[in-house]
Each structure stands twice: as C-alpha cells, then as structure tokens.
Design goal:
By secondary structure, the protein is mainly alpha-helical. The chain is built from 4 helices and no strands. Helix 2 packs across helix 4 and helix 3 packs across helix 4. The longest helix is centred in the middle third of the chain and has 13 residues. The N and C termini lie far apart (43 Å).
Length: 75
C-alpha cells in the first residue's frame, strides 16, 4: 500500500505503535520544541503562549492541508 500525499508530507506522522492521538502529538511536539509537557495543562498553556508554533506543529503532524500562510489568526 502506498502513502497518500498527506502522509508523505507529514514528517512527524503518528507512529503505528500509538497510545492515543493526543499522546502521539504531544511526543512529536516535545521532540520538535525540546520542551517537556508533564500534563494536559502544560500542553494547553503552551498552545496559548506559543500559538503559532503549536498550530503549525499540529497542522504538519496531522497532515492537515491549508492554503495561505500557516500562521493562525489570533485576536
């Protein structure tokens, strides 16, 4: 079975030995940023304090396709 374009474009795609999607994403984000998220509250805080980094990482990890700039509109 070949990879779909979304899978091929996601260098940090979820592993096959997944625990759950949120844990997979958290581990990928930790590896990407060099930070450690001890619990969901820490991950949530990072998603607020570092929103552009968080949402770009999520979009790339999930294989989400978008057009335009990969910077979230935050007001």
């Amino acid at each position: 079975m070949s990879e779909t374009p979304a899978e091929a474009a996601a260098p940090s795609a979820p592993s096959t030995d997944r625990v759950d999607p949120l844990t997979d994403f958290t581990r990928a984000l930790e590896a990407r940023t060099g930070r450690s998220f001890a619990d969901h509250a820490a991950l949530h805080r990072f998603s607020i304090d570092e929103a552009p980094i968080f949402w770009r990482a999520f979009a790339e990890f999930s294989g989400l396709r978008w057009s335009g700039e990969a910077v979230p509109a935050i007001s």
